[in-house]
Amino acid sequence: MPTRSPTATPRPWWRDAVIYEVYIRSLADSDGDGTGDLQGVIDRLDHIQALGVDAVWITPFFPSPGHDHGYDVSDFRGIDPAFGDTDTFRRLVDELHERGMRLLVDVVPNHTSHEHPWFQAALAEGRDGVDYRDYYLWADPAGDGGPPNNWLANFGGSAWTWEPESEQYYLHAYLPEQPDLNWRNPRVFEEWVAILEHWIELGADGFRIDVAHNLLKHPDLPDNPVLEPTRAENVPAGRVRSARGLARVYDVDQDDVVDLYTQLRARLPRTHAGEDPFLLGETVLENPERVERYLESGRLDAAMWFGTDRVPFDAAEVAQVLRTPSPDTAGRFGWFLSNHDRARPASRLGSADRALALSAAVLAMPGPYLLYQGEELGMIDLEIDPSTARDPIALRAGELDASRDRARSPIPWTDEPGRGFSSAEPWLAHGPLPEHGSAATQRGNDTSHLNRWRSLLTTWARLRDTLPVSTAVDHHDDLLTLTRGALAVQINFGTEALPLKRPAGAEALWRSQPGGDPATLRAAEAVWLYRPGEQ
Ligand code: GLC
User: Fold this and answer.
1) d(CA 27, CA 232)
2) pLDDT, tens digit, 9 for 90 and up, residues 315-357
3) Is 174 touching ligand 1 by the criterion CB < 6 Å?
4) Residues 169-178: tens digit of each pLDDT
5) Is the CB of 21 under 6 A from ligand 1?
């Protein structure tokens, strides 16, 4: 078995960490109102810890009118009573720390709720207001009285909403109920330093920064270039079709946005453990070089790389997505197959076996792996029913197929009708049971999806600190091989078994499918081979 090399250079805890994403509404409901809560997370820490994860990222639990299920925040320092209170939060932090896990708070700096006191004050002050007006982005109408430019909101319609009292428009990248903050105003920056300090004081170990690429807009507000219409039939969840008609040149990922993170980082205190708070950005960008800018020294620690959340089950395409990071930023892309905005990988890729095989390669990439709740159970998408749809994408834009509800159904803890999630009707319908059943059923079955994930993560914990940050990815027909020091991952992306290419002396540490002929790599199977002596 591999052991940690005594000469290994110390590396930050998050380098090859597994970070479990809790979508708070759907993990576990402790108080019988049909919605998950912080006490529910505490109640399920045995499950989370037994998986072998290093940290937990919890989606927003702040007071919110809930138009975007918590991503429309009306008090960045508070806790919505539906989810608990400061005392519950402190207990969660203590429990996590006692169990050797860290906590990441999901902060939403790009926008507030329209009910936030800052926005209410900006409205009350009117167009000449000097205190809070400039916390937001206001503009006069265009010559024809319409919106100041052609920017579109991700959830449908113009990105500008008319405010009749002051006769100005305000900007919102998402819903009209989520006005964008003006990060060019130094007072907004100072507010955020204080908000992050508050959560660090309460015990947070770091932050997941919502739409980190979105914070600055071009100050002249130029029109975005219009794109050629595409046949966007099969769009990934997260943004409505109509919002895909423009190139996002002036409203996201401005050149100077990365400087904000240098400045912010310099102001943050250390965590309770005496560490620099870990900053993970949600950077929804297609060009990896643009993502890398967020990682240059002193900016973010890690940036989410949107590639493996949409790649088909195909060796060549997977190889391309895995080769993306440059050596300079290797180890700092945040890898994931899914989250609360995307389709479930077992559905998207066609089976839980395929999802696990792909995860076995993605996990081995240098950098943190973000494991979304339910992925460990092989959960599949909720079939969206127009009468029960909750996501504003489905409700307001009518795009059921882009709805994010698909990945947000409650966790099936047991096989009973309420699935052990809540004693009440859940806020969102239960999805179909995963192929291997509920968490309780899977726990008792050695070869269940859950237990295969657990053995993968146990193996990973023993191996990761011995590995370099450089990787080589090759593919030939349906076989993909990823090599990282002594670890070689092989995956069969085809539908026929292949001979397993085992280098001399290599030991098979883990296989994604139970049993089988050791000399064969079955369809949709991944194997981890350990090659002693390789660095
Ligand atoms: C992020 C969140 C998503 C939210 C959006 C606006 O992409 O993950 O759920 O709707 O930002 O805050």
Assistant:
1) 32
2) 999 999 998 878 888 899 999 999 999 999 999 999 999 999 9
3) yes
4) 999 999 999 9
5) no
